[in-house]
Amino acid sequence: MHEAAISNIENLGFSDRITALLGDAREVLEGLKGEEPFDFVFIDAAKSHYKAFWDLAFPLCEDNALIVCDNVLMKGMTASDEFDTKHRYKTSIRKMREFLDYINNIEGVETSVLPVGDGVSISVINK
């Protein structure tokens, strides 16, 4: 996927503005302290780890940066327990609900959740 991303970035002529980083997200983000700030972050990871990735990425963002998180509605299970008919995802559902509550209550962050696909949160950072 990393190679495909780089190819797409190059084909679209954005190589001078977009850097695709490969590696364990925690290690990569921790290694970026002191680097040029981000204007966009995309989080798509294990659902129970979204907050950890957010907390690593947020300090690296510039004013007016966007943080987009994918799959936050988890096939509707985040919105209602009725969609987890076999009760297999209780922990992930609880963690995602806690995460959405967390990012909706950070001062200087405006967040919206869109019911597109499997749900997307879009947060604008205004530090």
Short account of what is shown:
31% of the residues lie in helices and 22% in strands. It is built from four helices and four strands. The mean pLDDT is 90.
- Number-wise, the strands total 4
Order of helices and strands: HHEHEHEE
Shape annotation: globular
- Average residue-wise pLDDT: 90
Number of discrete helical segments: 4
Rg, Cα atoms, Å: 16 Å
Q: Residue share in helices?
A: 25-40%
Description:
This protein has 127 residues and is of the alpha+beta class. Helix content is 31%, strand content 22%. The protein has 4 helices and 4 strands, in the order H-H-E-H-E-H-E-E. It has helices at residues 2-11, 25-30, 50-57, 90-104, and strands at residues 38-43, 61-70, 109-114, 120-125. It has a 4-stranded mixed sheet, covered by helices on one side. Helix 3 links the parallel strand 1 (38-43) and strand 2. It is globular and about 45 Å long. The mean pLDDT is 90.
